[in-house]
Amino acid sequence: MNYRSVKQILPAFKVDMGGVVLDQALPHSTVKQIDPFLLLHHLNTSYPAGSKQQEVGVPPHPHRGFAPVTFIFQGGVHHRDSMNISSVVHGGGTQWMHAGKGIVHSERPTKEVAEQGSTWELIQFWVNLPAKYKMSAPQYHPLSHEDTPLVTSADGRVKLGVVAGDFQEVQGGIETYSPILALRMNFEAEGQIDIPIPEGFNAFVYLLDGQLAVNGQSEVKEKDLVWLAKDGAGVHLKAKAATRAILLAGEPINEPLVSYGPFVMNKQSEIMEAMQDFQSGKMGHLEEVFD
Which among 140, 131, 158 is positioned nearest to 238, based on CA atoms? Predict the structure, then answer.
């Protein structure tokens, strides 16, 4: 296989999101987006034992024009939204929410995680939507660890969860609104694998922990985002130690982008309309109910 070279390595940096400190790998100081991916946040935290669910996590907030996606690694996420959906997904699972024309949701650690002070680790990334789908009906898609299709490398040392797209003739568990390949990867030390990437797709690898050699050359460490150039057919990854990572690849949308907070549209006037629609209740209302 003709491998893609490393275009740029973006080390994650700490950001404070309303009192929640996490690692942000995208956007970066020099990179606004890796089309169609707009943002990547990595949260690894715990709350004091005895915390109340309603006092932790992310309270109700709106979205329009893109898909916020959450990969859960430790603990569980309790999703509630203005479509009257209440859903819990635990470690190894995924929550893929198509915000479309607008939705209000909250993301809390489960009651057990809050009360026990357990580790809560997740990655959230934002996937832009083509203009023709930005005002479509919102949808929420949970995917448990058990229902995520699994592929094991030839050496038996790498396990990949196929969340979206096609990998080694295994179809991911989520259908997307533009072509996406989304993989969750767990490497044992010395595990290695070739991953084909469709021609023309933008692609990157992000390491939660551990260490990888990329194409036998570049060595990258935990919390590095490795942006791959479009000069090859795939990438070779080999673990120097036990490593958790994700690979995201997608067909660029190549449309104008205007964003403001939780809204991602094509024109400034559409952002103003989104703000007005949220304030007037057109995106619905969420009244959380706690045990």
Answer: 158
Taking alpha carbons only, the member of 16, 5, 42 closest to residue 244 is 42
pTM over 0.70: yes
CB-based contact 245:212 (threshold 8 Å): yes
Q: Is 93 helix (H, G, I), strand (E, B) or coil?
A: coil
Contact present, 24 and 15 (Cβ < 8 Å): yes
pLDDT tens digits for range 152-199: 999 999 999 999 999 999 999 999 999 999 999 999 999 999 999 999
DSSP notation for 39-73: EEEEEEEE--TT--GGGSSEEEEEEBSEEEEEEEE
DSSP for 254-281, please give it. ----EEETTEEESSHHHHHHHHHHHHTT
- Asked if 148 contacts 93 with a C-beta cutoff of 8 angstroms, the reply is yes
The vertex-186 CA angle with 46 and 129, nearest 5°, equals 80
What is the per-residue pLDDT across 35-90, written as a single tens digit (0 to 9) for each? 999 999 999 999 999 999 999 999 999 999 999 999 999 999 999 999 999 999 99
Q: Residues near 136 by Cβ (< 8 Å), separated by ≥ 6?
A: 98, 100, 101, 177
